[in-house]
């Protein structure tokens, strides 16, 4: 009994001493440590409320990566079936079913079928091609649940680069363009195509399709010319200045006639990207975004020589761009574009390899969380 009492007294003494030491230590000031109150945040939206996406097909090796990094939206074309037209309901249903099976939401079609040289160059068969495009819009909305179509106005020669393996940071490979390398190439089989002709053909197209897009709620999203030079091999380019986009938007004013904010191209036109996002965003004209960075090497506008870069280098203030998307309340689809090929990868798809894409998504997500949390502070 005495031993039990003696042990109890000892334990009590030890406890008292420990509490005394702890209390004393807590009152000591450490000049290297400042005590801050927890940062209380209001609820903030994942990815600043935007739909982060990858450009891929349902059978792409990117799909497992997309799931693992929680990028659950896709920019995709139509799964081709030799027995079906890509605008047929069955072809669109099959594509949607493939995405549904993966648990990924299909949100944008980029590079639509039935919009080619016939329409852009006013060739024989133009009206049939436009009719098929309208059918595609209707079926895509009804059977695919997709309400954004990203298209371009670059016939014959679309996206173009003169170098696919320019050494970038740390030896990564990037794409680049130098107009001097192609300016003396012969004209195409279509000869010289003037800017006036390109404008006339674009107006014809918009007047035919925008009223139909309004009826079904399809957002038409015009991508800028890439590269944004004035002509390539005799074919003029007209979607290569901010002013020309303003002109396009006035041809058929509609909430369903908008644009793809491809940051790289608009920056190479000389635009202040955050300011432009705010201007067109507040007007409701940005339907889709390509989050991308570049560096002009020409010193002229529009740029005639430039290189792609990692997303965290280049001439665009990417944090300010992300802040601008947040400020306009952009809730649409946004994807990284034109990434470097990194160590260990074969440069089989310049601009679209996996490691650079994953790096870009991580960078985008960090920017988005930074912006969203900064605006959610109590």
TrEMBL record:
InterPro entries for the chain: Man_deHydtase (IPR004628), TAT_signal (IPR006311), Xyl_isomerase-like_sf (IPR036237)
EC number(s) stated in the UniProt entry for this protein: 4.2.1.8
GO terms, biological process: D-glucuronate catabolic process
Segments forming a coiled coil: none
Catalyzed reaction equations: D-mannonate = 2-dehydro-3-deoxy-D-gluconate + H2O
Short name of one Pfam family: UxuA
Family matches, as PROSITE patterns: TAT (PS51318)
Signal peptide interval: 1-25
Purpose of the protein: Catalyzes the dehydration of D-mannonate.
Protein family (similarity comment): Belongs to the mannonate dehydratase family.
Protein name from the UniProt record: mannonate dehydratase
């Amino acid at each position: 009994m005495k031993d039990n009492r003696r042990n109890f007294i000892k334990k009590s003494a030890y406890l008292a001493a420990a509490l005394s030491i702890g209390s004393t230590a807590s009152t000591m000031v450490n000049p290297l440590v400042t005590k801050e109150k927890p940062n209380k945040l209001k609820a903030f939206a994942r990815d600043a409320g935007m739909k982060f996406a990858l450009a891929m097909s349902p059978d792409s090796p990117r799909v497992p990566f997309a799931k693992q990094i929680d990028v659950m939206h896709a920019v995709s074309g139509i799964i081709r079936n030799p027995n079906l037209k890509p605008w047929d309901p069955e072809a669109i249903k099959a594509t949607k079913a493939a995405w549904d099976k993966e648990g990924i939401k299909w949100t944008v079609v980029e590079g639509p079928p039935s919009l080619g040289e016939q329409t852009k160059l006013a060739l024989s068969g133009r009206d049939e091609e436009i009719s098929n495009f309208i059918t595609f819009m209707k079926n895509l909305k009804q059977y695919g649940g997709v309400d954004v179509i990203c298209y371009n106005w670059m016939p014959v020669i679309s996206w173009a680069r003169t170098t696919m393996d320019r050494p970038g940071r740390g030896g990564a490979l990037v794409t680049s363009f130098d107009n001097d390398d192609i300016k003396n190439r012969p004209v195409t089989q279509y000869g010289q195509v003037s800017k006036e002709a390109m404008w006339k053909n674009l107006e014809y197209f918009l007047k035919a399709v925008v009223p139909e897009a309004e009826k079904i709620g399809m957002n038409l999203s015009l991508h800028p010319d890439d590269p944004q030079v004035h002509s390539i091999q005799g074919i003029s380019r007209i979607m290569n200045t901010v002013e020309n986009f303003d002109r396009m938007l006035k041809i058929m004013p509609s909430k369903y006639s908008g644009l793809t904010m491809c940051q790289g191209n608009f920056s190479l036109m000389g635009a202040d990207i955050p300011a432009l996002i705010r201007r067109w965003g507040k007007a409701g004209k940005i339907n889709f975004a390509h989050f991308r960075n570049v560096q002009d090497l020409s010193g002229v506008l529009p740029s005639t020589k430039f290189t792609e870069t990692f997303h965290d280098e280049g001439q665009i203030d990417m944090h300010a761009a992300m802040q601008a998307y947040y400020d306009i309340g952009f809730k649409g689809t946004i994807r990284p574009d034109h990434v470097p090929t990194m160590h260990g990868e074969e440069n089989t798809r310049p601009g679209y390899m996996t490691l650079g894409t994953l790096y870009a998504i991580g960078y985008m997500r960090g920017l988005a969380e930074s912006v969203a949390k900064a605006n959610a502070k109590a």
